[in-house]
# Entry
Amino acid sequence: MDNQTFIQQKFAEFYEENASKIEAPSSISQREFGFMVFKENVMVRHKRFGTADALKTFIKESAPAHAYHSTAYYETPEAKMEDKGWLGADLYFDIDADHIATKCKEIHDSWTCKDCGFAGKGQPDVCPSCGSKRFDQRIWPCDECLDSAKKETIKLVEMLMEEFGFSSNEVAVSFSGHRGYHVHVTNEVIRELDAGARKEIVDYITGTGLNVSFFSSAVGAFRSSPETPVYALNDVGWRGRIVKGAYEFLSSATLKNLIDLGIKEKRANEIVLNKEAILNSWKREGPWRPVRGVGKEELRTIIDHVIGVQSVKIDTMVTTDIHRLIRLPNTLHGKTGWLKVSFPFSHIDIFDPFKSAVAFKKGTVNIYVEESPKFRIGDEWFGEYKKQKVELPTAAAIFVLCKDSASLVE
Ligand SMILES: [Zn+2]
Ligand SMILES: [Zn+2]
# Structure
């Protein structure tokens, strides 16, 4: 039996028992559905279901590799794109480890150049041997990748609730089933926002185009007047975030940290020597006055760094695309065999994707692993493996098979 047939068979067995748990979106008959089918590896789109039961039956019978629904609501979801009659869309955010620079990728991800066959670790922009940009990549999720995605998710949800004013029951969080998290906002007002308005939200969340001149008389054209807002460590929004972030950064910054940001050694030395005085002056309400060591250039460098740390690393395309398809909760991800799972935001600190998203809990499978890094399923660690035969619990075997890094041993 080939890998794809085996995986599909396992997916079918899973849905036979668990299709009833699939979470159908609200206003189901106004949604478009799409499925990636095994073998042909093609996307079937523009499907409509009148009821949640019809959707679940379809998934049970077809056992697709991926199942998606539109974030949008349409008059005629089954029509061609231009004839669907767009009625609105929920607001979605996708946080994927792909968009976060984690060092572990150098350990677990690998690539082979499609043009010259050169291979290596990590995720290169161009092949160092021939300059090609075409790669076969093996990308693996790990604890470090998913923890960093989780941190971004927490920043995002706090921003949505504290600064945008959404209530906790309007914001839903889920693990994507692969390398990150989805955040879903349902609210009548947000539904009708066009792509431009969603781009404004994205810019706020990513800290794009922030004007930092009001932070300091040293940085820009600050003119004090009775209406000029003062700011402090506990301010809400980007102002408070930058003040707090700069304060925290400098509190723990070493000479090396400052030089690494691009501050000249002489100035960095002065900053370290005058740290206490600088922090004290920042603690008082703004605007920040020039302090020995921190002139216009240094302050800008520190603020730019803080914006980088405090902004949320989202996939901006997902949020601005008002015709997007997004994975259905409690369906299987064809690249891992894991579930997309929703969970309450209040549980995010203890949420363990390597436990909660495990779908296959029975039996073992014999596979020949071409190559795999060390990985965890539940409390058990596996690998790393290289060109060897192993008997693995079904969840672990399916994970490596889905990654196309192993073959079935009969
Ligand atoms: Zn190459
Ligand atoms: Zn990683």
In short: The two ends are 8 Å apart (CA to CA). The chain is about 35% helix and 20% strand. Residues 113, 115-116, 118, 127, 129-130, 132 surround zinc ion (ligand 1) (CB under 6 Å).
